[in-house]
Write a structure and sequence with these properties.
The protein has two domains: about 160 residues, NAD(P)-binding Rossmann-like Domain (Rossmann fold), CATH 3.40.50; about 90 residues, ProC C-terminal domain-like fold (Orthogonal Bundle). An eight-stranded mixed sheet has the order 3-2-1-4-5-6-7-8, sandwiched between helices. The longest helix has 20 residues. It is an alpha/beta fold. Strand 5, helix 5 and strand 6 form a beta-alpha-beta unit. The chain has twelve helices and eight strands.
Length: about 270
């Protein structure tokens, strides 16, 4: 396949870099266009499978799969520019929050093959969680090929588009909540005498290990927590204080705020 990226910023660039090695193994070619020409040239120099293009139209014409990595407010300008090059054999992939499949169909046509994804920033270290939605025109074989791009940068799951707001709350925005938790642990450790660099390692590795325990066990998350809490011990003391202060309710309220904002943004 020829996989084109329009926009190679933080997220688009992370997906491109994450897929580059897999592309080389599969014989895929990666094309890229970015308004900052130096970005495209740098990626072209870094990866043998990457070739820069000089415009959105040129990239769309030359690609089988076009991944739109631009901001949501740019879609109304971008989609008319590439519409003439988007034949029914091509697949358009959008990662923009608030931009629905129906909105894209309104510009490109209801018969076009459109996939919507919602990745998150850990794509930069190959640990993204990517939700993938498709319209009725994307057959299973085509979907499987595109799905493989996002499996190469972490984990991917197909969901109905109606769940995309929930996805934003649970994975799209949640790295920020997790960074807050890690930062609080670091600050507390520093306050108790640990060097910041050491505190960062202790806090972040503990979160990484806990996440792996959740993913690699059939034990419920609640039971994993209970298993750490020895009666009368230090952990149960901390957990009780967190419950008392509304820790879990605060997370749920933040989640809900992200979901509601996503609904307001959607066009």
């Amino acid at each position: 396949m020829k996989i084109g990226f329009i926009g190679a910023g933080n997220m688009g660039g992370a997906i491109l870099k994450g897929y580059a090695d897999t592309a080389a193994q599969k014989g895929d070619q990666i094309l890229v266009y970015d308004k900052r020409e130096e970005n495209g040239k740098a990626l072209e120099a870094q990866f043998a499978v990457v070739s820069a293009r000089s415009s959105e139209k040129e990239l769309t014409r030359d690609s089988d799969v076009i991944i739109l990595g631009v901001k949501p407010n740019m879609f109304e300008d971008l989609l008319p520019q590439i519409a003439g090059e988007c034949g029914s054999e091509k697949v358009i992939v959008s990662m923009a929050a608030g931009v629905s499949i129906g909105f894209i169909e309104g510009y490109l046509g209801s018969d076009r093959r459109i996939i919507r994804i919602m990745p998150n920033t850990p794509a930069q270290v190959g640990e993204s969680m990517v939700a993938v939605c498709r319209n009725k025109n994307v057959d299973d074989e085509t979907f499987g090929k595109v799905f493989g791009i996002f499996e190469a940068i972490g984990r991917a799951e197909e969901v109905d588009e109606e769940l995309i707001h929930c996805v934003i709350g649970v994975s799209g925005s949640s790295p920020a909540y997790t960074y807050m938790y890690i930062d609080a642990l670091i600050q507390a450790a520093v306050d108790h005498g640990m060097a910041p660099e050491k505190a960062k390692i202790f806090a972040a590795q503990s979160v990484l290990g806990a996440a792996k325990m959740v993913l690699e066990n059939d034990i419920s998350v609640e039971q994993l927590r209970i298993n750490v809490c020895s009666p009368g011990g230090t952990t149960i003391e901390a957990v009780n204080k967190l419950f008392e202060n509304g820790f879990m309710d605060n997370i749920k309220e933040g989640f809900a705020a992200a979901v509601e904002k996503s609904k307001v943004m959607t066009k």
